[in-house]
Structure formats: structure tokens, C-alpha cells
Amino acid sequence: MTESNPTQTSKRFKRDRDLELKKKKQLQNPWRRRHHISKNHQVRKKYTIQLGENELVLKELDLLSEDANVFKLIGPVLVKQDLAEARANVRKRIEYISAELKRLDATLQDMEEKQNSKKEAIFKVQQRIQSLQAGKAKA
Questions:
Q1: Band (13; pLDDT cuts 50, 70, 90)
Q2: Helix H or strand E encompassing 100
Q3: Distance (Å, rounded) from C-alpha 118 to C-alpha 127?
Q4: What is the pLDDT of residues 23-43, one digit of tens each?
Q5: pLDDT tens profile 113-132
């Protein structure tokens, strides 16, 4: 689409820039961003603590002999559990927690990439506006 009027072209670029700025502000809304990042860090901290605890439990289980008695707390009751089953359960928990930590990291990285792409889009639109204005100034 070619426009012969430079003023209309400049207005279109300014409108594009304003739209990109609006999108960026939505992504960078301080309250939303802080809330999301804060929530992400809280959940990450919780999972990191749980991961450490489960790794410690697995080390303790590995120190036990095969004929050792292992009990699992279910509500107010201690229930006898097979050592191999206990190790398998702890390993599964460690795998799950590790996967959740990776997912949280990917979410945060995705948010940062979206912000950066919006910054780049705004920068390009601003450059186009400046070049149009420079062209008007010469004319």
C-alpha cells in the first residue's frame, strides 16, 4: 500500500508506534509483572526447598540396608513401606519437582523474550518515524 501524502504515512507510523507501546506497557505493567515474577519466585523457592529435602531423603534411604524398616506417615498413622518402593517414590518426586523448576524457568524466559521483541518493534517504528521526519525536514 503506497501513500502519496507524507503526513498520512507519518501518522500511520505514529499510530503503529503507539499500538506497539501499548502492547509493551501491557507486558510491562509494573503490578502484573511484579506479581507474576514474584509468584514465580515464590513457587520456585518452594520447589527448590522440596527438591533439597527429597534429595536428602534419597541419600538417607540409600544408606539403609535392604532389610531396614521404612515407614511412611499417612495422616496420623505410620505405615510400613518397602524400601525399594520408598526409593522409587522419592525419585519420582525429584523428577517431578525438577520438571516444574524447568517449566518455571521457561515461563520466565518466555516473558523476557516477549518484552524484548516488543522493545525491538517499538524501536523500529520509532526509527521509521524519525527517518520520515528527517525526510520532511529536508523537503
A1: confident
A2: helix 83-138
A3: 14
A4: 666 655 555 666 676 788 889
A5: 877 888 888 888 888 888 88
% helix / strand / coil in the chain, to the nearest 5?
A: 80, 5, 10
Rg (CA), the chain: 28
Q: Which residues contact 48 (CB under 8 A, 6 or more apart)?
A: 101
The backbone torsions φ and ψ at residue 27, rounded to the nearest 5 degrees and listed phi first, read: -70, -35
Q: Say how far apart CA 108 and CA 38 lie, in whole Å.
A: 11
Helix (H, G, I), strand (E, B) or coil at 81: strand
| Sign of torsion over alpha carbons 127, 133, 134, 139 | positive
- Largest Cα–Cα distance of the chain, in whole Å? 92
